[in-house]
Amino acid sequence: MTGQAVAATRDPKETLRRLARGSHAGLVTTERSAELLGVGASVASLTLGRLVRRGWLARVRRGLYLILPLEAGREATAIEDPWALARELYSPCYIGGWTAAEHWGLSEQLFRATFVVTCANIRRARETFLGAEFHLTRGTEERVAQVGQVWRGRERVAVSDRERTIADALANPSWVGGVRHLVEILRTYRESKEWNPSRLIERLDEIGSGASFKRIGYLAETILESDPLLVNEALARRTSGVVKLDPAIAVRGRINTRWGLSVNVPLKRIGLDA
């Protein structure tokens, strides 16, 4: 440990300055703190512990800390941007599902929890840190790596684009709260200037879900004015067997033999002509 490093760990304000400069959205790990302070992991851990006891840091979980504004006080432990916190907690991951749909203006439906697709080992589908709730689901490394990033202030966070968000939801309707919300998202997307059926097919191919092509083919004929590109591409990629339009609903529904789909959510009940 250098003399500067020793001085930094003894001077709490200097320590905070160093940590703040090298933090991501105010978040810093023990390993990152050791690098910033020029000390070993054990010394960094002790230093962080002292700062927590003084009310200048909040411990998010083991090895991850939030730097608190000096004027905030001990009770101000909420995170400003849940997306940045998700990146630190669950990396590699991306923001998807209903959160991405809301971000892109595809849905007005509000969900309290931030939807996160992660490669990390998770024990629970729901977790809360620093007042932020997260809904977690596992994804493969390949699936996560395909997703691009957007700027969130000074931070970059991975979030599924419009087409990937819809493709994910076609494979797993629960990711946007069920088929009813998926239908709303598809209609909004179809009416927007960002409408790009070719790109949507590309994203569906990336996921490689036969069930998603069954759903988009049926919904394209039903609610998207029989878009010929989507219908023809979906027909070409149909797989055998029968899947539910909404897997979360126990009702079997009528079988649509053209698409190998159990239509267990009558579309006429959600304001559509079926």
Question: Could you give a short description of this structure?
Answer:
This protein has 274 residues and is of the alpha+beta class.
Major beta sheet summary: 4 strands, mixed
The counted number of beta strands is: 12
Structurally, the number of domains stands at: 2
Counted by DSSP, the helix tally is 12
| Gyration radius, in Å | 23 Å
- Which consecutive residue ranges, at least 5 long each, have pLDDT under 50? 1-7, 269-274
Mean pLDDT: 88
Portion in strands: 15-25%
Structural shape:
elongated
Major sheet strand order: 4-5-7-6
- The class by helix and strand makeup works out as alpha+beta
Describe this structure in words.
This protein has 274 residues and is of the alpha+beta class. It folds into 2 domains: 3-67, Winged helix-like DNA-binding domain superfamily/Winged helix DNA-binding domain (Arc Repressor Mutant, subunit A, Orthogonal Bundle); 82-270, no CATH class. The protein is built from 12 helices and 12 strands. The strands form 4 sheets. It has a 4-stranded mixed β-sheet. The chain has a 3-stranded antiparallel β-sheet with strand order 1-3-2, sandwiched between helices. A 3-stranded mixed β-sheet has the order 10-12-11, with helices on one face. Helix 1 (3-10) packs across helix 2 (12-22). The protein is elongated. The N and C termini lie far apart (72 Å).
